[in-house]
Design brief:
329 residues, globular
Length: 329
């Protein structure tokens, strides 16, 4: 444990320095700091690269994102969530189910993908990106090469969505709540969802995060469902309770705990401001690290067919969900 911490310190320090520089640069050039942080990470990893001694620390970006999401719960209350919470849960259930089915159908009957690869792509597009790919891949005992392949497709779509969603939101002048719920319902991975949400506005970021967390909570259900299907079909798949817990995004529980604490009035205005500042910095660390995961050489090696299947499915779900969300919110 101590060795791992010592190895991570240089990379974490680099993220901290980078976050300070991004915030200052953002104020100078007038570019949203959330998207700028990702852009800086992308630029660095595809030019000079991340030195080996910094890699373990930079790789902690997922932990900073989770910590920021947990603290973000302090800015919401149960009353605000219940106001449109039922609608969001219904939208999540409908569009997660729809996305999984569409990707499965296109993958198997149009593109001719292998069953397990199609299932991992369906879970990644419908639930929570790379995390769902890994969870389902483990549950159905997929080949490691197929898991890596599906994860690469998800990362490619994440990179595209980081550009497309802010552009569409600006072009259509979408209200904050509509944009946030739309991103949370239709984008793939948690990091990009939170990034584009807060790039739009504080309110959009809150709703994007909360909507995405509702989708993430379905990861165990989807993994068990696929494991059961493949187990019945060929007696190979399996999913233990331990695996479900290990893949479940436990930071969702922390987020909900802070929502409860904020709802009963235990947090003073001063403390809430301090928490808000901490969230901003945690997200900057997370998005800088997230940018370093987007490597153009890996994306170029991603085959066209799986990417087109997921792209077509996500594009259709995204367009339909935007129409529906605009009508009901």
């Amino acid at each position: 444990m101590l060795t791992a911490v010592r190895e991570a310190v240089p990379g974490i320090a680099a993220l901290c320095v980078g976050a300070v520089l991004v915030r200052r640069l953002s104020s100078l050039v007038g570019v949203n700091e959330t998207l700028l942080a990702i852009g800086v990470g992308v630029f660095l990893t595809n030019t000079v690269g991340v030195p080996e001694r910094l890699q373990s620390g930079v790789a902690t970006h997922g932990r900073w994102l989770a910590a920021g999401i947990v603290l973000l719960g302090a800015s919401l209350t149960i009353g605000a969530i219940l106001e449109i919470g039922k609608i969001i849960l219904l939208l999540v259930a409908v569009f997660v189910t729809g996305t999984v089915l569409v990707v499965e159908l296109l993958g198997r009957h149009v593109a001719g993908l292998s069953d397990r690869l199609g299932s991992m792509l369906a879970a990644g597009a419908g639930v929570c990106g790379v995390s769902a790919v890994v969870a389902v891949g483990g549950a159905v005992r997929a080949r490691e090469v197929d898991i890596a392949y599906a994860a690469s497709v998800v990362l490619l779509l994440d990179a595209i969505s980081l550009v497309v969603y802010p552009a569409v939101g600006s072009l259509l002048d979408l209200p904050a709540t509509v944009f946030g719920v739309w991103a949370g319902v239709s984008m793939l991975s948690t990091g990009p969802v939170v990034a584009v949400g807060f790039a739009h506005s504080e309110v959009a970021g809150q709703w994007a995060t909360m909507t995405k967390l509702a989708r993430n909570a379905l990861i165990g259900v989807v993994a068990v469902g696929y494991a059961g299907y493949y187990a019945r079909r060929d007696a190979e798949g399996s999913a233990s309770l331990r695996m479900i817990w290990e893949t479940f995004p436990t930071f969702v529980l922390g987020f909900l705990a802070f929502v409860v604490v904020a709802s009963v009035g235990l947090l003073s205005p001063t403390l809430l401001r301090s928490i808000g500042t901490a969230v901003d910095w945690l997200f900057l660390l997370a998005f800088l690290g997230l940018g370093t995961e987007i490597r153009f050489d890996q994306l170029r090696r991603t085959g066209a067919t799986p990417a087109l299947v997921v792209f077509a499915s996500v594009a259709g779900v995204s367009g339909l969900s935007l129409v529906v969300i605009s009508a009901v919110l």
